Amino acid sequence: MAHRFLIKDIALQAGLGTATVDRVLNGRGGVRHQTMRRVEHAIRELEQQERSISVAGRQFIVDFVVEAPDSFGRALRTAIAAELPLLEPVTFRSRTDIRLLFAEEEIAQALARIRKRGSHGVIVMAPDTDGINRQISRLSGAGIPVVALATDLPASDRIGYVGLDNRRAGETAAYLMRHWLVGEAPHVLVTVRNNRFRGEEEREIGFRAHMRDLFEKPVFTELVEGARSDDPIGPQVHRALTATPDIEAIYSIGGSNRQILRAAAALGSKPKVFIAHDLDSENRAFLEGGRVHAVLDHDLRQDVRNACRMIMAHHKVITPKDPPEQSPLRALFPPMMPGYRPSRQKSNVTPCASGSCDE
């Protein structure tokens, strides 16, 4: 049993006598299997402690390159500030480049700059394009690991992905629709911020597929805000609701919910169900006011923690966890919000166990 520790140190770590440890290390008989396992475990713990001591005080620089709505960007900055000081055994410092509008060529340039100046790791939320994947490959070739956040980049050389199972999230939205909408041909407005993002695409695919499983003839109207917001979602929603007044529900995949709700209110339209993503401050207020009926959320702090642990494991500072723990999906409803006040008015939402209850 190879080791480089004193017998007395192993004995202390294992809670055994030195004579017993000596018998285990030298392969003498008369030792129970459980005792041998305790000695092996003690040696592994001593090795881990030794590694921790050797990296204590070491500083890692991690870069965040993210295109996201302002509300998500604020939530991510909060998660970074809360989580990084708690990470061990190294000390993390972050450099953030988080933008509402981040053109593909600008993202590629940002990644190229990081490669030139150096980094211990990059956490990126970006479209799944050839140009960005090439820059990730160059980062990997330079020994800089990349982790995809919230939307995966499976064709790249990223070392892992942290975030939701986005297809499952879309299926969950469909499941909630089935329990709230009456009839077999509901008309649902689906809004996407950026169809270049794989995560949003996977949510929509999961949603449409499961809606077709659960309803006979669901109808969809899809709106895309666009990569550079040349056509804001608010006016698009206004036009869609004007042209198609039978829209019953809204599934907001990409955010911009204030614009969507303002457009609906201008027409006096009240969707029976409005499902959104991410419990940021804006969606929390909408939930409390009952304007949004459900928010699908996950823990961004856990995503930041998992991504940084992947980076540490890549640098052999800690033992890797494979696969990393995936972010659990949470469904949040108005009564779960501390500021929620029930209304005596009839609800816009009709919860039905099977979609066939009386109105």
According to DSSP, the number of beta strands is 11
Q: Secondary-structure element order, as H and E? A: HHHEHEHEHEEHEHEHEHEHEHE
Helical segment tally? 12
Strand line-up of the largest beta sheet: 7-6-8-9-10-11
Under the CATH scheme, the architecture of the largest domain is: 3-Layer(aba) Sandwich
Return residue spans where pLDDT drops below 50 for at least 5 consecutive residues. 349-359
User: Strand content of the residues, in percent?
Assistant: 15-25%
Q: What's the helical proportion of residues?
A: 40-55%
- Find the CATH superfamily of the largest domain: Response regulator
Rg, Cα atoms, Å: 26 Å
Straight-line distance between termini:
72 Å
Biggest sheet statistics: 6 strands, mixed
Content-based structural category: alpha/beta
Describe the global form: elongated
Fold-level CATH name of the largest domain? Rossmann fold
Query: What's the structural domain tally?
Result: 3
Average of the residue pLDDT scores: 86
Overview of the molecule:
The chain folds into 3 domains: 7-55, Orthogonal Bundle (434 Repressor (Amino-terminal Domain)), CATH 1.10.260; 59-163 and 300-322, Rossmann fold (3-Layer(aba) Sandwich), CATH 3.40.50; 166-297 and 332-336, 3-Layer(aba) Sandwich (Rossmann fold), CATH 3.40.50. It has helices at residues 7-14, 18-25, 33-55, 70-83, 104-117, 130-141, 166-180, 198-214, 233-243, 257-266, 281-288, 300-314; strands spanning 59-67, 91-99, 121-125, 146-149, 160-162, 187-192, 219-224, 249-252, 273-277, 294-297, 330-332. Helix 8 links the parallel strand 6 and strand 7. The protein is an alpha/beta fold and 359 residues long. Helix 1 (7-14) crosses helix 3 (33-55). It contains 12 helices and 11 strands. The strands form 2 sheets. A 6-stranded mixed sheet has the order 7-6-8-9-10-11, with helices on both faces. Helix content is 43%, strand content 16%.
